[in-house]
Amino acid sequence: xxxxxxxxxxxxxxxxxxxxxxxxxxxxxxxxxxxxxxxxxxxxxxxxxxxxxxxxxxxxxxxxxxxxxxxxxxxxxxxxxxxxxxxxxxxxxxxxxxxxxxxxxxxxxxxxxxxxxxxxxxxxxxxxxxxxxxxxxxxxxxxxxxxxxxxxxxxxxxxxxxxxxxxxxxxxxxxxxxxxxxxxxxxxxxxxxxxxxxxxxxxxxxxxxxxxxxxxxxxxxxxxxxxxxxxxxxxxxxxxxxxxxxxxxxxxxxxxxxxxxxxxxxxxxxxxxxxxxxxxxxxxxxxxxxxxxxxxxxxxxxxxxxxxxxxxxxxxxxxxxxxxxxxxxxxxxxxxxxxxxxxxxxxxxxxxxxxxxxxxxxxxxxxxxxxxxxxxxxxxxxxxxxxxxx
Length: 390
Ligand SMILES: [Mg+2]
Description:
Layout: H1 7-19, H2 34-39, E1 55-59, E2 66-67, E3 70-71, H3 73-82, E4 94-97, H4 105-116, E5 125-126, E6 143-147, H5 153-161, E7 165-167, H6 169-175, H7 187-191, E8 205-208, H8 215-227, E9 249-252, E10 258-259, E11 267-268, H9 270-285, E12 292-293, H10 299-317, E13 326-331, H11 334-344, E14 347-351, E15 369-371, H12 374-389
Parallel strand pairs: 1-4, 1-13, 4-5, 6-7, 6-8, 8-9, 9-12, 13-14, 14-15
Antiparallel strand pairs: 2-3, 10-11
Helix pairs in contact: 3-12, 8-9
The structure holds magnesium ion (MG).
Residues 60, 62-64, 331-333, 354 line the site of magnesium ion.
Organism: Postia placenta MAD-698-R-SB12
InterPro entries: CDP-alcohol_PTase-I, HAD-like_sf, HAD-SF_hydro_IIA, HAD-SF_hydro_IIA_CECR5, HAD_sf
GO cellular component, one term: mitochondrion
């Protein structure tokens, strides 16, 4: 027998979860949905295994859970539902997925826990460069360049991932200031550098972890590394001296051309830096350089997140989590959150608390549903999945 999850049953359950007791008048089993009965032990699962939630969530952060430094109040209520205040009475797996980065996952999870009022576990958080953990084994002992962030912040992140020889463009400038004579290292930049002889250090890959602070310096050094096949200052082109050294890999972690800061107009992001580099490189060589792009909405990132969600589901439900249920992406940006989710075959909910303004016409990528805020989005998705099941 199907009965929709009504507002009454939602509020009862939220109350019941809080007080561990049914709050209303005496009711007979006929007053409950099959799901509610099962959760109260009246009825066993029809498929003979512990019941697992029929859905999981991935949330964008900025414009969905936070607005600038402030927490959106609906976010706390949405997370409370996922932590058990829902008709199943069980935890619904979720992760947070952002194109931001520049600091360690540990530091960001601690900050998010403080802001949201719920513990955000390391396994529930994916930022733009987290995916690099899955490729680090290819470069563990190889010298690589890591770009972006202040001083050597991203070097510390890279080392935390397992890169043993991660260098910054500031290291290169400290080695030889003539590489880019238009920037003098500040005292704090100089303090962050490592002493390396780059004429004897073949760079095998360049990872743009976060938005570069000095585009000119970084574009110059990327060109140097690629054109001389890893040895900065070595002869360039396809000369015999270059044979035997493979072209360095170039990896970007965030395709956003624009992003929102406290400034009234959007700011240029890492995607703009990539365009600038490729334009210079094409002018020099006649063609763009092959690169790898991660971050929302790329397929690679959504595939990675699916695995993270699978692991989270297993953590919560062990062997009962035989297969991942339907995934809902909740985001405020049609071009990244919604486009990526749609391409991955997930359901998507576009919220109105961030960059998308419904007054400006339909979104560029059509979501499965639109919601005023994240609380409404979560509630809609849970009701949709429960109504499918019973
Ligand atoms: Mg956003």
